[in-house]
Amino acid sequence: MTFAWPQLLWLLLVPLALLVWGLVRRRAGDADAHDKILRAEAGPHSLRLATHRTSAPSRARPWLSLALAFGVIAVARPQWGRLEEPVFDQAREILIAIDLSRSMLAPDVKPSRLDRAKLLTQSLLEKLSGERVGLIVFSGTAFLQSPLSSDYEILREFLPALDPTFLPEGGTNYDALINTALTAFGATGAADRFLIILSDGEATEDDWRSHVAELKNRGIRVIALGVGTTAGAMIPDGAGGLVKDERGAVVLSKLESNTLRELASATSGVYEDASTWVDLAAVLAATVEAGQKGQFLEKNTIRLVERFQWPLALALWFLLVSLYYEFPVRPKSRAITLRADVPATPPRRSAEKIATLLVLLLAPFSLLSPDVRAAEPAAAPEPPLLSKIVTRLANSSQRTARDWAEFGRETVTWGKRLQSAQQPVPEGPVRDALAAVELGSALDAGTTDWPKLRAELEALLQKPEDQQQQQQQQQQNQDQQKQDEQNQDQQQQQQQQQKDGSSQPQEKPEQQDQQQSSPEQEKSPPKQPQDDQKQSAFGKMEEQQPPPEQTQKVGGVPERKPGEQKPPTDPALALPLQKLDQLRDKDSPAELFQLMEDQKQTTPRKKTKDW
């Protein structure tokens, strides 16, 4: 057994020192024992007395020391056993280029040219082991879909989604393909490099020949696979029809292998006809054997197996045992409320205080008439909380401002409950509470809001009629305030209208007369004849109504008067003006904007095949 980090084993001294320190401390505690007389009286086996130094006996913690020791061993990474692993020498780089032009949808190769290219790529990936593989898709443009990598699962995920709509431009541009491949391979590297092209060979441009020399200088060999047949097939357009050229004729796509053959021979590569099934891995192996680079190597390396899991599990187990046995349990603190026993007979002084307060509280009931007492036998029962407060204040020798505030608040609550039950509030308890408020405010003015509490108590003394009058007075004050605000708003609006009227031009006398007579017309509208009442709500459509004088026309052509002649027009501008009139009638601002803009002169693109 070996350790990956043997220098960490020095940390084993820490748990050893902890264990020794615990043992020494325990021996020192035993030496400081009680006298023999005390031990004899208490009993050596029935009771264990603590020393005067500490309330808990000193103890060694062996379980904790073992947990720390095995934890250190796990961190040091123990290793035993041997494991052989294959390691591949990255000596090959392969870029697979798949043609995504619409001609690859031709069904002359089953199921289609594009599906055949995908199947060939999948079969190649299944037989590769360790090579760095990338994926390029191309049509009118080229794009590096997956950089060079040894992870083949990425390529397998991309393959099913490839179709002609993947790229924006149609056609087959080998120039863009070669530029993308040169960028993907990089400028330096000693590995064997292969560019596998799966296409039908119908190139739309011939600019790719200028890059052949650079392919040879970098040692990139092209393996070209012609997917298709010389007889060809028609191209489906994906909507149930067939692809047609600019003349409207149906396109017949055939395999054109000249471009692929020329590209493969110029780079010392291989061309294969993929109209039938081709073992692409065998073709690649044959190309590698004919190459000049180093061969693909596979090596087996031996490494030790990591065994840190075992000491780590033991460390966790000993730690749990240590927490269970070696550390004392601390009970949680609980809030315990002790209830004092109420004496059976209170002292004489306290009894006198209670009697005095009860007399004050019950005095209003004795002053009531017999009719009121008969009508409301239980009109004002005191709540238990208020009674408790009165009892507590009677028993207390020193009363604080907080006590008087509590007494006043409870009295307010008690009185509001009586009012909500439509019962009269006795005046005596409320007067006592007001006296308590005076005493409390004199003791400490910051304990509570004494003015508010005093106002609430005084509100309890008011009769219902007084309260109604007070509410009516408040409502009248609010209504008067709202009326004043509305009058102020009307005055501001009138002032604003006067300012606006002074800034506008003076109206004609006829319009002023009409405006002056308008209030009278509103008061007494004239009677309309029956013919006017029967006409449409939109008025007579044939009669052209004059536009209002205060409106402003924006845009358009200036209107000409009936007697005004049309200005002469330049003959050279007659046709453009006619087109502009047509666009204006069509209400097409987009086309009009395009005509108004100065379009940049671009070089006309050469007409090529886009399939």
Automatic annotation (TrEMBL):
Biased composition, class Basic and acidic residues, residue ranges: 520-534
Span list, region Disordered: 463-611
Keyword RNA-binding in annotation: no
Residue stretches of biased makeup (Low complexity): 467-480, 488-519
Protein's UniProt keywords contain Nucleus: no
Keywords: Cell membrane, Membrane, Transmembrane, Transmembrane helix
Positions of the VWFA domain: 93-308
Xref: InterPro entries: UPF0353/GerABKA_families (IPR050768), VWF_A (IPR002035), vWFA_dom_sf (IPR036465)
Protein name: von Willebrand factor type A
Organism: Opitutus terrae (strain DSM 11246 / JCM 15787 / PB90-1)
